[in-house]
Amino acid sequence: MKLHVRRAFSGEGGGAVRARRIGMGHEFHDHRPYTDGDDFRHIDWNLFGRHGDLYVKRFRQETDLEFLAILDRSASMSLGKPSKDIAARRLICALASCFASRAQPFEFRSAEVTLPSLCAPVHSDADLEAAMDALEKLPPAAGRMSLNLAQTPSNKARNRVVLFVGDFLDAPSSIAQLAALKTDHCEVICVLICAEEERAPRVLGPVHLKDVEGHSTLRLNVDQDLLDRYIQAFDNHLSECQRHAAGAGLEIAIINAECPLDEAVLAVARRGALVR
Amino acid sequence: MTLFAPIFLWLFLPLGLLLWWRFKRSNESRLDVSTLLLWRKLVENNKSAVSVRQPMNWRVILEALVGVLLIVALSDPRFEGDESLLVLVDQGGSMAAPQRRAHAEAVAKRFLDNRQSSLLRRFAPENRQTASPWRHALADSWQAGMRVELITDSLSADDNLPFAMGVTIIEEPVANWGIVAARAELEDSGKLNLFVAVAHTQSVAGSANRLMVRFEGSDQDQLIHDLKAGSRSRESFILPIDVPRDVQSLTLRLEESDDLSFDNAVTLWRPRMRGRLVIESSKKNTASTLAAIHDAALALRLRPYGSEGVNAEPQDVVVSAGRPRSEFSAALVVACDLLPSSKLREPVRADTIEGSLSEVPGLSSWRFGRGFAEPLPDKMDVLVRAAGMPVVLKDNISNSVLIADDPMSAGWTEQAFFPLLIRAFLAELGLVGIQDPDSWLPKKPSSVFMPAESLALSTPEFSRPSEPGRRVRESMSPWLGLLAAILVMVLLALDLPAIRPVST
């Protein structure tokens, strides 16, 4: 996979990833007619010799990328088989494995106010194994998500490719906060993970529903009709998330927790236009 | 209503746990959800779904009903009637001992005092000219489901009395007589004076109490003297008798009043056996005669029982020494008059006579533990007994089993319990033979009887009268089983869901 980003980031590493922008770089992109003020060094003299017209070469800009994976660690992520939490951890590990090999720093943080780090950042393949170990040993997801990027220290999420992985139960709030990151020169990619058992629960008859985050309960008699309407409502919820994200200019990938890892990685990378 | 196998009621315990788990599982599902928002939205549009009314779970109820029916059916319930009790009192010669008769009457009276309606029937085992009425009475009453109280002495108590029968054993020693010496003097008048010396021993149980004479050329015995059990161990007397002129010799012998003569017994041996036993019983007392039969049987390696089954023709040692087999075919009774010899009395009294053995034709049925049969001893279970096959007793105290071809003819050998059980199961499946006990059971011909100490049982438990006899009707188990089967079919036909959804 060739790594791409839409946005050009200003980094100190001299650039390792092609940006879509045209600028200073080493990789030839195309020609354009010479105009006054163009640097003579970019004139394609071979072309001038053959055709007698002056053209200058254009190059792709190269940029540094810093990835920041923000993981929703709320109790709702513990649902599913495998749980959404485990699927999310596997996914960000896989993405880190892809990008760390290109010497892109990769950080893992929890979706809380202070964005606490989940493990040491990955700078190379050597760091990856320790990061995977640390992620594997994380306790199960619990509590409620308290993401508040407005209060987050600005240096933690700026000039990054931000990868937010969660179940977006409060989609409007989360998406609005993530959209605000774009003004901080971030490329934001959202990954919504859902579980099959919450999309289409196998339950009929009297059922005692318990909200794993709020601990509130609801007793219902579920018949097939009610179940069908719930499934429809859940699908609508996913569509709403996509609509909100699109309205905020964010890309969102919806991944099933039971989805094979390679497919999930590819879907996220494609959705975020990280590969071409 | 009486439960004839109440041990199965213990099954209610696991059934209760199973149903509790089943009901708990099917009653209400618990579901953790990431958010209740979606459900609440749906509920707002559909108020009826909020109802938590529990739907009737017919499947679990029917399953519970099937379980209960099966357990009750296994417990063998029977209704009782008013007409109830048949008390049989042994009037045989062996009961002639004064203490026994008095004791029997006392027991019967005490027994009847506590009953409302009873039928007292006296029986005499020596009445065997026709079909033995008392045994047929037992058989009839057993088949009718009546509980029968039998009061007898150990000589007549059979080892396979019907389950519903309680046996009260009168334990009083009786003298056994033997002829020590005899001499005949013919008078000029034609009278023959017989000088006879007899002796008896208190240590031998038996009822030989009639001195019989048979003249040459005659086929009938004549009673010439009736011996009474007394305190004296020896007795002599002169008996003047009339003798026909042409008689050259006579035979004296003691006869038991309630058993076949030994001459007859000898003829009961099957011709296919390798020897013909001729027991001059008149020369010996009962116990030694019977012991001789035993020894001969063991020496010839005769099987005490035939392989044809319980209802076979007369052919076994027990029958040949005591009573014709035909008497027992109806009631599945085996007599045990062989047992009361001096060697056998104590151990056999506890373990064989009083109903601890069960005769099972061809390993076709099994009995484990108590509960099936009340007369079973408390500490010993009869596992297997096939006609002509080894008897297997499990001693619950030492957790071992005791095996013998027959308690009266073969040695008892301790065997490990579980291998034997496996062997018996294999035999049941037909994978190993059961017809040849020699192949898998060690024989100890020299030790004839089981060691008493290893089978020491609590005699009070035996002699305790059984529950009050009641006339009981047919078992309801088949009907209950049928009802359970119908319910199962209903369950299958309706295919009821484990949780019935309520329409909203």
Give the helix/strand layout:
The complex is a heterodimer of chains A (276) and B (504).
Chain A: E1 4-5, E2 17-22, E3 28-33, H1 45-51, E4 55-63, E5 67-71, H2 84-100, E6 106-110, E7 117-122, H3 125-136, E8 161-166, H4 171-180, E9 187-194, H5 196-199, E10 205-211, E11 217-222, H6 224-247, E12 251-256, H7 261-271
Parallel strand pairs in A: 1-2, 5-6, 5-8, 8-9, 9-12
Antiparallel strand pairs in A: 2-4, 3-4, 6-7, 10-11
Helix pairs in contact in A: 2-3, 2-7, 4-6
Chain B: E1 2-3, H1 12-27, E2 29-33, H2 37-44, H3 58-74, E3 77-78, E4 85-90, H4 98-113, E5 118-123, H5 133-143, E6 148-153, E7 165-170, E8 176-186, E9 191-201, E10 208-215, E11 222-226, E12 234-242, E13 250-256, H6 262-267, H7 286-299, H8 317-321, H9 345-353, E14 380-385, E15 391-395, E16 400-404, E17 413-415, H10 417-429, H11 459-463, H12 477-494
Helix pairs in contact in B: 1-3, 3-12
State the shape of chain B.
rod-shaped
Compute the CA-based radius of gyration of chain A: 23 Å
Helix content of chain A: 25-40%
Average of pLDDT of chain A: 79
Number of strands of chain B: 17
Q: What integer is the average pLDDT of chain B?
A: 50
Low-confidence stretches of chain B: 82-86, 115-148, 154-166, 169-176, 201-207, 257-416, 434-472, 497-504
Structural class of chain A: alpha/beta
Percent of residues in β-strands of chain A: 25-35%
Task: Name the helix and strand elements of chain B from N-terminus to C-terminus, one letter apiece.
Answer: EHEHHEEHEHEEEEEEEEHHHHEEEEHHH
How do the SSEs of chain A run, as a string of H and E?
A: EEEHEEHEEHEHEHEEHEH
Spans of at least 5 consecutive residues with low confidence of chain A: none
β-strand number of chain A: 12
Strand content of chain B: 15-25%
